[in-house]
Write a structure and sequence with these properties.
Chain B: One of its GO terms (cellular component) is plasma membrane. Chain B: This is ABC transporter permease. Chain B: Belongs to the binding-protein-dependent transport system permease family. The complex is a heterotrimer. Chain A is built from 16 helices and 2 strands. Chain A is mainly α. The radius of gyration of chain A is 25 Å and the shape is flat. By secondary structure, chain B is mostly helical. Chain B folds into 2 domains: 49 residues; 223 residues, Orthogonal Bundle (MetI-like fold), CATH 1.10.3720.10. Helix content of chain B is 67%, strand content 0%. The radius of gyration of chain B is 24 Å and the shape is flat. In chain C, the strands form 6 sheets. In chain C, strands 6-9-5-10 form a 4-stranded mixed β-sheet. Chain C is globular and about 70 Å long. Chain C has 18 helices and 15 strands. The longest helix of chain C is centred in the last third of the chain and has 31 residues. Classes of the chains: A mainly alpha, B mainly alpha, C alpha/beta. At the B-C interface, helix 5, helix 10 and helix 11 of B face strand 2, helix 4, helix 10, helix 11 and helix 14 of C.
Chain lengths: 315, 284, 523
Amino acid sequence: MEIETAQVMTIRLKKEPLWKRMWKERWLYILMLPGVAFFAIYKYVPMWGVLMAFQRYQPHLGVMGSEWVGLRHFERFFSEPQFWTLLRNTLYIAILDTGVFFPLTIILALMLNELRSEIYKRTVQTLVYVPHFLSWVVVVGISYILLTTEGGIINELLALIGMEKVQFLMSEFWFRPLIILQMIWKDAGWGTIIFLAALAGVNPSLYEAARIDGANRWRLLWHITLPSIRSVVVILLILRLGNFIDLGFEQIFLMLNAMNREVGEVFDTYVYQVGMQQGQFSYSAAVGLFKAVVGLILVVSANWLAKRLGEEGIY
Amino acid sequence: MVKDTSFGSRLFDGINITALALFSLVTFLPFLYVVVVSFSTSTTLIPKTFSFEAYKYIFSADTFTRSLRVSILITVFGTLFQLIMTSLMAYSLSHKNLPGRSVVLLMVLFTMLFSGGMIPTYFVVKATGLLDSLAALIIPGAISAFNLIILKNFFQSIPEELKESAKIDGSHELGVLFRIVLPLSLPAMAAFGLFYAVGIWNQYFSAILYLTDADKYPVQVILRQVIILTNGSIGDTTEIENVPYYGNSIKMAVIVIATVPIMLVYPFLQKHFAKGVLLGSVKG
Amino acid sequence: MKGWFKASRQHLALLIASTMVIVSACSSGGGSETVNSNTGNEKPTATNTTSGGDSGQTEQEPLAIKLMYNFDGVEFPKEGNDVQKYIEQATNTKLTVSALPGSSYEERLPIMIASDDMPDAFPIPRRHQKLPYVVNAVQAGLFWEIGPYLEQFPNLSAINPVIYENIAYEGKTYGLPRERALARRAIQFRSDWLANVGMGTPKTIDDFYNMLVAFKNNDPDQNGQADTTGMTAKEVGLWFAPYFGAPNQWKIEDGKFIRDVQTEEFLNALKFEKKLYDEGLMNKDFAVIERPEWTGAAENGKAGVRIDVTGSTVGLDSVVKENLGEQAAFSMISILEGEYGKRINMEGGHNGFFLFPKSSIKTEEHLLRVLKFFDDLAGETISNLFVWGLEGVHYEMKDGKPVAIPDNKHGDDVGAPYGAPLGTLAPAINAMQGELSELGQLEQELNAENAEFGIVDPTLPLISETFLEQGAQLETILSDANIKFVMGSITEEQWRGEVERWLKSGGSKIAQEYEEAQSKLNK
């Protein structure tokens, strides 16, 4: 009780009139100005495109001239026969993405951080981040070379040890593992960068002091290393939730075929096929809006939860 | 440094080193394959011959040298510009007591989820006079909301006392930013610089959308074109039979040329990831 | 069905006749002499007074034309290159070309129409012909209807009328098609292997099957190892279907539209492919194979058969010779005869078509001059350029016949940047005839023969709203079912169930809409 009132007191003390506080920080506002202008012009001015979701948008008529159709596109979307399959598949992969890929990048960063040899560490870092620069077309092409039943390296090895060949690329069972493995292969190394940057900011004297106190490696990891990246992890996680159902469209699209579509088709690939390829701008906009609203709900709840748990949150 | 030499610790080191070696091997081998194929002429899966044919072909026309120049140019200037824009805004927003801060942050976050889409953005780029200029590849992506929010977070973790003391010494806000905050955030700046650089380097769609002059195309446009011509993948209109055929080795060589320059950036930035660059010495 | 068939035959006769007329007409004068009369009194401005000097006849100032098109090569030639200069001189124009990589061109088109930044002419890709943004813009009157003007232009009107019909919107012609063979499907096979196993060119479906068996089992490359396969396949081979009597996508029976999958003939074709799959006469990974590997199997002497188009055999033959030596050779055939006689699927017969926006071409005179430019492009001079290139650079004249200079860069200099995107009437028609290789000869013969036996997809000029909206996902139901059936993961019953699902989810609605559109068109 007492502490609380003391806090209230200090806040009250600080409380000057708003304009006065703002005037005091005028330099900060000036520094912020270019950025705010950028967001206003390049992000908020085009925001009228969202209206397309409620129209039968025709490029040559523009938003002003196109016919309004209300919620028709949303109704169509929710009543698609595949809607629930799409939702299930999307959630499945999104959970794998957030629950497997994301923690793995943290673990990889920690493993790198634990390396004692500086040269070895740098070499590994450089090598694991190379695949990020190959496009998905190339990655899927490489997967094909490895996995095809017609002379693919993995299947040849299986045959060599007397096992039956596996149709990895045309199987419902293997689809998700392959997707997540490709993600890890391509982007796990890249994903460590931000954590490594956070780890680089840890004050070495903290480690020294703890070691003098007799802490072993695990305790250092638990009490110093992990807490130092905690806030970055939380922020990244919240931001990730915002794009929770945005999956790498190109990757999944390239991996899809008749035999795995049942588990592989997700919102993004579906919308690409139905919306963009067919030139149905309004429909794509409607699905985009749906995804954004879901993302917004997730972000706001996650941010609220983070703040409840004493973290900083995003705003 | 006091070293932990217990058995458990050594075992961990052993496992750790082996696991990372394996993982880096797995990530690097396919790229090695790409490089090897680019230096061969055969069309078989396993290359047998060595030659510079593909590279000779590529550099026989000046498209690649020119587009590489464009890519390097926009990456260098674009990264600088975007880093400055982002740091200025992130620095202001890192002041927890700034009135209106959460509104701005919320608005920024909002743009990560909602966007007007390609057509309206095109109109804004046109209205701001950027069409057919290289600035169209830099300015419309000046600040990534993602980078801004995380950079703000990094700035916040710098101890208040340091900033305050600098202010007492008579430094202006800009002074605090450039003399205290940025030097202390070098690892973060290196990371976000890398993100921006790679982002600019890898973009091809804005180039297609906003540029009509093929002389201004960055190397990614050419790369994508070659890959699509050889693969016949997403969105191919290419059904014409008498277009020149580009072999696998040329495709791979183009991949190498388009990725190696940006890959080389990382080793140079890496030293900034070394533990506790400045923090230790300042705070001591 | 029958009616369509007949119609196409008549058109073919017409095409051949008109082609001959043009060839003889052009051989005397060349394309640029057929100037239409009404351009003479256009824009009597400063030009006339300055250039009018001694020539007596007033020379027109070169017409500035802005073009935008897809470019399917790597490097677009520099501004002021010889080829473009040659075109500008021959057509009296000054060109401004924006050539976008083919893959990106599609993505930019809707924005171009939305922002009204349209050039004087640009092509609509074949795949976009019926996309709503194109259909709506055409129906809204954004583009010139060029049909009524075509007869003034001998070369443009020589383009097969079937093709103009295929790209018409509600029976009106807006587009200028980039012509290509109507039926191009080709079975490309190793002729040297065929000789090695003691067989002749396959004529029937059985011959074809036996060839595949022999290619797989009888060591056709005579190296003593069982390292060859029959066919390298990519996707389900719907090209089989016509040999078994199935329609080309749709057929009309008693006024009703019936989809191929609803016929027993189609299922028979599918069963044939399943047999090839089950017996290992084609690659098991046909549904996921990547293009380089698909074609690589034929190029490296692993597979003896590839299914592609007539135009790609010459290239395949030269690659396989380079890889395996001069004895290796490819030949091709298009039609396998069965109990239904000679049949082959026809396509639209074009690789996209040009539209002419009213916002950039304001007057009828201007339109006529732009059309004249395209007519000139299809004339003798530029046709020669498109086919042979520049004399002394890409070809030489020997005994009155053009001969290509070895290792010339025709594809990079002419073909990809100008010939392929700008040719409307097939350039071969008005160009000089050179000494054709055996394969090249065969290609021409097949293209001509195929057009004769081609069956038409009656829905090409029709529009179905349901198809526009849900076509992509509905087609996926069918193509997935076909693949699953061939791979044996669903039974015949289940396959029929999928067809039923397709009908219920919109297939029958599409049929009905086509029916209505057809009856509207017939009125």
